[in-house]
Every structure is written in structure tokens, then in C-alpha cells.
Amino acid sequence: MTETDYRRLASRLIATAHRAGRCILSHYGRAHIEYKDDLSPVTAADREADTVIVDALKRIAPGVAIVSEESSPSQDIEPDGRFFLVDPLDGTKEFIHQREEFTVNIALIEARAPRFGLVYAPAASKLYLTLAPDQAVRARLDAAQPVPDFAGLDLTPIATRTPPPEGLVAAVSRSHLDSRTQAFLEENDIAETRSSGSSLKFCVLAEGQADVYPRFGRTMEWDTAAGHAVLSAAGGSVLNEDGSPFIYGKSQENFANPGFIAWGRAPEGQE
User: Fold this and answer.
1) Which residues, in sequence order, are bridge partners of residue 262?
2) Mean pLDDT score, 31-38
């Protein structure tokens, strides 16, 4: 992708995410909750936002496959090829409990890596996205207001930080903090933890507010891809537990992820 490709895609997907965010917020505080076979919650907001995003992607990039949490793949994917990963409402538990930390996630995967990512938290009016392989930005995007032109957005560059000498700050899941994560926090130089929901944990690292995000519980590719892209463009990385690259296109595993560690700046030997 060229820089022009990134900006063209960003300008169109910002408007798409804004529409999805408005749809989600129309259900905020009055969601009817159902449960999937795996007992994860789902609401009408998930499904309606999914329709908004998938329909838009089919118009924007008609030849590119789409894999979404809430709908079947639009076509068979080539694991080493190009496809979108979509989570129309990441952090459904946060949405149900009326916390602002739920997001719209849209990512473009190429050659098993996330090349473009957009994370939008409509209740918090926060937008994060990639504009180049090494450029991540944030902006305020109010779902209650008309979506501005791309040129009218106040895009602020973000970057990861060098870990502070007093110790690492760890971003942890508000709803999924497990014993393995607790063990990681105890075994490493963690000075402080910061709880957050959804893919915003990647964004906390990307804007230099935390240093590491360990996640050993269940996640799916659509949960991580957009935030992973933003973090990578800001100077960070996401690695498997053994330090190997964290990849996408795992269709034979139904797009399930292994455990991972996201770093603002990975320790020596793990970049």
C-alpha cells in the first residue's frame, strides 16, 4: 500500500466507522442481550453495525474478502493474501455495562500481517488509525455530529515510549484478567497496571501511556487486528509467547488467536 492508498482508505472508512458508531449508540443503555454458542454476549447493535460496515467494504473494495465476527466470510480467503477483519462492536460487555470502552475495529490484512487499522470508540469520541506503515494518529470523532471531511480532522501523531526507569506500566483487560496474566505481572518489572476494555489496550500502548499488554485468554483475529496495526505503526509490536511474529489468516483454527504479548518497545532479543 502507498501513502495515498492509506489515506484514501482511511477517509472512506472513517465515515463508515462513524455510521457504525451512531448505530451502536442508538442502542446504548437499552440493549437486548442474547448469547452465542460460546456464551459470549451479542446485541442488535453488534448485528446492525456489522451490516453497515460489511456493506460499505463491499462497495469500497469489491474484490477483497471480509471476515467479520458477526457474519460469515464474504468469500474464501487466501491466508497469505488480502482480506478485511471486522469486529463491529468489540467490548460488548463494556457496552452492556454502559462503559465507554467499546470500539469499532476494521483492519486490512496483507501477507498475514495487519497493514491498516482503524479503532473507533464512539461513546468516548476517540479515533485511532494508521496513515502509513510507520505513522499512527488519533483524533476526536463525535458520533453525535456530522462526520467531518478527512482534511478537516485534527489528526495527532502518536508513538510508543521508551519504558520508564521506575518500571513498566501494563495495560490489562477489565473483563478478562486471568491467573496467567496475574503471574506475568508478578514475574516482570510491572510498576503499575491500567485496566481498559476492548482493543483500546493496544491504543494505550500506541500513544505511550503504557508499555506492555499481556493476553493469554481467548481472543479472535478480529479482536486484535485493528489495534495491532495501530500499535505497529506507532512503533510497537505484538508477539507470540515464544517471541515469534503474531500472524493472521488462521482460517483452519477458525481465526482463533494464541496467547500474545503486545509491547510498546519490545525488550532486546524479542523485536
Assistant:
1) 213, 238
2) 70
CATH number for the domain spanning 47: value is 3.30.540.10
Average pLDDT rounded to a whole number, residues 235-263: 95
Question: What percent of the chain is predicted at pLDDT more than 70?
Answer: 93
Q: Are residues 123 and 186 in the same domain?
A: no
Query: What is the per-residue DSSP string for the chain?
Result: --HHHHHHHHHHHHHHHHHHHHHHHTTTT-PPEEE-TTS-EEEHHHHHHHHHHHHHHHHHSTTSEEEETTB--SS---TTSEEEEEEEEE-HHHHHTT-S--EEEEEEEETTEEEEEEEEETTTTEEEEEEETTEEEEEE--TTSPPPPGGGS--EEE---PPPTT-EEEEEESS---HHHHHHHHHTTEEEEEEE-TTHHHHHHHTTS-SEEEE-S--BHHHHHHHHHHHHHTT-EEEETTSPBP----GGGTTB---EEEESSPPTT--
End-to-end CA distance of the chain: 23
Query: Is the Cβ–Cβ distance between 59 and 159 less than 8 Å?
Result: no
Task: Please indicate, yes or no, whether residues 207 and 96 belong to a single structural domain of this protein.
Answer: no
pTM, entire model: 0.94
CB within 8 Å of 115: residues ≥ 6 apart: 1, 108, 109, 130, 133, 229
pLDDT exceeding 90 applies to what percent of the chain? Answer: 71
User: Which pLDDT does position 192 carry in this prediction?
Assistant: 94
Summarize the confidence of residues 59-67 as an average pLDDT. 93
Between CA 180 and CA 255 the distance in angstroms is 22
- Average pLDDT on 230-259 reads 96
Same domain, 175 and 118: no
C-alpha grid cell, residue 222:
478480529
Please indicate, yes or no, if residue 248 is contained in any of the structural domains. yes
